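Hi everyone,

Forwarding the result from last night's run.
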Amino acid sequence: MKRRRFITGVSIMAGSTAVTGFTSSSHKKKDTMSSARLPDIPLITVEEHMRRIEKAQRLLGEQKMGALLLDAGTSMEYFTGMRWWQSERPMVVIIPVKGEIVYVCPAFEEDRLRENIKTGNKVYIWEEDENPYKKMIGALTDAGIRSGDIAVEERVRFFIVDGMKKVSGKFNFRSGDTVSAACRLIKSPAEIALMQAANDATASAITAAIKEMQEGMSPMDVGAIVAKQHRALGAMHDFALVLFGAASALPHGSSKPQVLKKGDIVLMDCGCRVGGYSADITRTIVFGAEPTKRQQDIWNLEKQSQAAGFAAAKSGATCESVDAASRKVIVDAGFGPGYKLPGLPHRTGHGIGMDGHEWGNIVKGNKQLLEPGMCFSIEPTIAIPGEFGVRLEDCVYMTESGPKWFSKTAGSIDLPF
């Protein structure tokens, strides 16, 4: 699930070739923070970025498109290894169907840009009183692309494409999802290794938070423990959505004050990043007391639903078939049907990678076939308004032989991993 971000994390990186952890030196008396650290995980290499560009160029050629246009953001980082923040001054990357990639940036940013470039070295600059879109069209022309279809990555801002259209009417701007999303959808072993490290860190953070919970805490108190453990392991804390009691029936949380008391359902949806790659894990427990029969029964049903989704996730199956399998367990138990409450009010899962939510949604109507390298969550929430909600969320990566969990799934309501 997409989360409300109660806690903001800090990126901890070491070296240029690996992500490493560190140990925290400040501990409270009852602190259960792990002194372990993430193993050294190789970052994505320049060679892998070059292979991504080559794949994009192959797809452009097959689809008869002249170039792929990228705005600052995740896809730019995916292809070039360079992180650049969006501003009103556009900096774009153009991947032509053939030849070297091109950067177009504000002139006063050129030195900073060149410091960060890992792939290619062609840079077109525009002064403050110049039209940046003429430079972009010029870069296409210099690459031998004078007309035809240009692929636009989905997060390129409207004013950039509109500005290019006003300079030249010779180009047709089309969705670039068939290029950019097709590349990012399938993760390499290096990407999966970084995601595994992020999931390991998040499982550790959730475990630490459960051990340190005390009556009277707020959701933010619990979230702070998660954030601290992420940082202690060397990961970049991303989010910690923590919900108590009736608030747990609201998948994205509640603005009402919550105070932890014995017998409360506690739902924790947490994640971090390692080397730019995400984790997303949710656990639901009962705090400080034996679960009621109602709590136990709903938790068990949720567990069965998640297991059914995993069993359906075979290579060659559709994304929607995983949703159908998970949802059927819940509907057969008398909830729903469909998205009606009480029941499962949202899709069963989402794709994940560099962004917490990516392509490959596990939802009715998505006939995308599952294939090795795809990564997604399986998280069929059961929401009962006015009572509580239960969500178990773990992410998988597809292999030739089927899905593999990134995290160890919950064993029972009192055994989160």
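Residues 349 and 362 are 5 Å apart (CA to CA).

Cheers,
N.
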